[in-house]
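Design job #97: recover the sequence.
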């Protein structure tokens, strides 16, 4: 399947498989991946502005799309936080970039995690799945020599599925390495 893109695989293999599994009457009922959102929360950024700039540069390198800073909504004096201060970075991927990122995540990045045994299969109740990654260095686009601080990120897969079962089946067919249920 190396010459096929993930999008072609979805149309040629995944849609018929899910139609058969869930007895859909039309291909439009088959759930699809709508977007992938990559988010980094950076609490330490209130003291050091360079952390936000580094995070934005790293997310941009990983995804191939410009990342944006997320801003705080209110003042919290205990955390030395003011309204509209940058506290994180995020990217929303859709269409071709989304499929390219998904392929790189499944084929390259996840296998690079040390002692990797699969990811948890717990969805949010509406067919969406969030994957937490503890280190950004699993992505080959990141140069380990330039890392100041290891930062994690959340990768959310937003699907058009109505149930967790349908969302899980879709992501499983895409090739996400879920842990086997005991």
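Job complete. Output follows.
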């Amino acid at each position: 399947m190396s010459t096929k893109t993930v999008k072609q695989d979805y149309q040629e293999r995944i849609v018929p498989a899910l139609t058969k599994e869930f007895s859909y009457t039309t291909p439009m009922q088959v759930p699809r991946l709508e977007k992938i959102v990559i988010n980094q929360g950076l609490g330490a950024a209130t003291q050091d502005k360079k952390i936000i700039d580094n995070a934005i540069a790293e997310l941009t390198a990983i995804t191939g799309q410009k990342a944006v800073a997320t801003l705080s909504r209110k003042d919290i004096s205990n955390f030395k936080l003011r309204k509209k201060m940058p506290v994180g970075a995020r990217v929303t991927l859709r269409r071709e970039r989304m499929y390219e990122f998904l392929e790189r995540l499944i084929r390259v990045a996840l296998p690079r995690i040390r002692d990797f045994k699969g990811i948890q299969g717990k969805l949010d109740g509406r067919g969406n799945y969030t994957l937490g990654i503890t280190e950004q260095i699993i992505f080959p686009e990141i140069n380990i020599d330039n890392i100041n601080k290891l930062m994690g990120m959340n990768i959310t897969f937003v699907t058009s599925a109505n149930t967790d079962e349908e969302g899980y089946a879709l992501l499983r067919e895409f090739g996400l390495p879920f842990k086997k249920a005991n």
